What we know:
Strand content: over 45%
Number of strands: 21
CATH architecture of the domain at 22-123: Sandwich
Strand order of the largest sheet: 2-10-9-4-5-6
Distance between the termini: 158 Å
Oligomer: single chain
CATH topology of the domain at 22-123: Immunoglobulin-like
Amino acid sequence: MVATWKLWLSLFSVCSLLCTAVTQLQLEPLNSAVLQGSDARFNAIVQGSWDIMTWNVGGHLVLTVRSPSEIISSENYNATFCSSGQGACVEFTIFNVSRTQAGPVVCSVQGSYIPQIAQLSVQDSGTVSITGGNVTVMKDQQVEFQCVTTGWFPIPSVSWNQNGQAVNSSLYNTTSMAEGDFFNSTSVLKIRAVSNTKVECTVTLPSLKTPQSSSVFMVIEPNYQDEMRKVRAESLNNAPEHQKGQVNLSYVPDNQIKVTPNVLQENGQNNLKTPGVNNTAGESGFMKHRHLTIV
Length: 295
């Protein structure tokens, strides 16, 4: 008798597992973030036989699907049958989604299926700008940049880049304030001017495929003294080599023996002949000689 009860319990457990596996409902994604005005899509996969599927948004029934092909849609909502290797697939779409539709999206299938719930987040992207525009500063000067975002929901993530490289978060501070149904933020970045730099403020939300950004340029103003030193250095480097001086043959260093000239008689005049100097006449008939005056 005990063995019989054990057998029945085992069969019941097996049946329960099989029934659960056969009647399974999956919903994806379970969390979806989209921009207001865009479309939101969810896929429901049903394993097992079924007749009716319903979709609820914000606590209201918005669409009914009858297996195998009948769809009863309503304004701004639609469903299509899709292919899946795991079972019947239904794609549910919310067109032109608004923030009033944010919250739970519930898919239910008649029978022993457990309803599945996804969360829909509807977000808004606003504007971003760095105030003041491009700046010209002195090297090593402390520079402050201010990035302002307006009309975002929820509070966006703000970050800074310098020449495409992320700035350490310890160098900037961001504050946000609600204004109606939106948030405005102000982020202040303080850096030291080292070189010419592109400064960029980046703002993003989970629903944004591409972050929004604003950028300005920081230009280092040349230092006059540094520029003068640079000009002098370049001038010296580019200067031509000094021309070599001509040898002065008549120069006699101090403490050297003076040469005593010999007197040469020419045309009745006394000319002095210096040793080591060619006194012969050239081809022109003129004699090359050097005159010395004795005081």
